[in-house]
């Protein structure tokens, strides 16, 4: 059914659905654009949506061509090309933070030279990692641990049993372990990681989510025994720098590049994404592009193959010293009232 449109003499006439998008010459243009959500017929709605999407794509391509032509014209005339438009994102519009690390911050470098990770990062001590579980374990907990052992060199697994965590810390310290990793599970699913630096701390508690084991990754690769390269991204604040050095202290500082293994900790909006890959460089001759001598140019492409596991970490607490629930002093604790804005980040 249509709705009624008033005439000047007070009478009304019905208005069809086709007339709703047409301009109203008496009182201006009311609905000059038909939105797909306004169309009830599914086939017509999908056609209108596809048409609008295609028009937006063509308009975007025109803008790109015009921008490229302007840059080329400016370079030919010896002028400065127009500035590129930088899209606004949550990352580049984050709230200003006084704790962001700066290259001329002498106090930061003094803290780095005196922190607990310095002996390992200066290669004075070879990292040795002990991995264990919580008391009530599940099937995916040991599966994650076995894959962590394949990722982290010189790591060892010990069964938790009924031992208290403080007893395990004392045992690991006597056996010259440099770090202790505890995998917590809830409802048969790993949900947290507790990483303890030995012998003097600190202790970091992370929430673990989005776990994907190696066997569940399509076309996964099998890691070798070579020591991996380590990539740390976007740990920009003092807290982030400390957490990044904590992760760095778990791995040897002499990677074996022959193995072509890389472990990545990528921080984005205070979520730390863990990935483990193997890479390979391939040289391909392209006949379409030729050099000055007429020979085809060789282009090198890097290809990645994920080895797993894959998971996401979120820092909950960072505590001075080793694990102590009663008398421990916390460096940083995440509280719900701290999340005042989507653009406020701590790492």
UniProtKB/TrEMBL annotation:
A Gene Ontology molecular function term of the record: rRNA primary transcript binding
Composition bias type Basic residues, residue spans: 42-65
Biased composition, class Basic and acidic residues, residue ranges: 18-32
Pfam family, one: Brix
GO biological process terms held by the UniProt record: maturation of 5.8S rRNA; maturation of LSU-rRNA
GO cellular component entries: nucleolus; preribosome, large subunit precursor
SMART domains associated with the record: Brix
Region (Disordered): 1-71
Gene3D superfamilies hit by this protein: Probable brix-domain ribosomal biogenesis protein
Source organism superkingdom: Eukaryota
InterPro entries: Brix, IMP4/RPF1
Domain Brix per the UniProt entry, residue ranges: 127-324
Protein name, entry field: Brix domain-containing protein
Organism expressing this protein natively: Arabis alpina
């Amino acid at each position: 059914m249509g709705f009624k449109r008033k005439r000047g003499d007070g009478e009304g006439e019905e208005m069809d659905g086709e007339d709703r998008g047409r301009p109203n010459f008496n009182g201006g243009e009311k609905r000059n654009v038909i939105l797909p959500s306004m169309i009830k017929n599914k086939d017509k709605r999908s056609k209108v949506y596809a048409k609008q999407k295609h028009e937006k794509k063509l308009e975007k391509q025109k803008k790109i061509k015009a921008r490229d032509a302007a840059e080329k014209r400016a370079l030919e005339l010896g002028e400065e090309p127009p500035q590129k438009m930088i899209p606004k994102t949550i990352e580049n519009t984050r709230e200003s933070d006084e704790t962001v690390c700066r290259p001329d911050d002498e106090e930061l470098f003094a803290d780095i030279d005196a922190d607990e990770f310095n002996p390992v990062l200066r290669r004075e001590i070879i990292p040795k990692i002990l991995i264990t579980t919580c008391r009530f374990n599940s099937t995916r907990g040991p599966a994650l641990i076995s894959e962590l052992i394949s990722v982290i060199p010189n790591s060892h697994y010990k069964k938790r049993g009924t031992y208290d965590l403080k007893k395990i810390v004392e045992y690991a310290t006597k056996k010259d372990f440099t770090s202790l990793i505890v995998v917590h599970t809830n409802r048969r699913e790993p949900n947290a990681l507790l990483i303890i630096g030995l012998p003097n701390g600190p202790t970091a508690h992370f929430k673990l989510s989005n776990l994907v084991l190696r066997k569940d990754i399509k076309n996964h690769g099998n890691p070798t025994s070579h020591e991996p390269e380590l990539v740390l991204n976007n740990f920009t604040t003092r807290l982030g720098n400390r957490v990044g050095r904590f992760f760095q202290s778990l791995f040897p500082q002499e990677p074996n590049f022959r193995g072509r293994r890389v472990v990545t900790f990528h921080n984005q909006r205070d979520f730390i994404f863990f990935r483990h890959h193997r890479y390979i460089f391939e040289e391909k001759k392209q006949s379409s592009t030729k050099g000055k001598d007429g020979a085809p140019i060789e282009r090198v492409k890097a290809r990645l193959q994920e080895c797993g596991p894959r998971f996401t970490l979120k820092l909950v607490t960072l505590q001075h010293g080793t694990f102590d629930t009663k008398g421990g002093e916390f460096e940083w604790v995440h509280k719900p009232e701290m999340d005042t804005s989507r653009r406020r980040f701590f790492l």
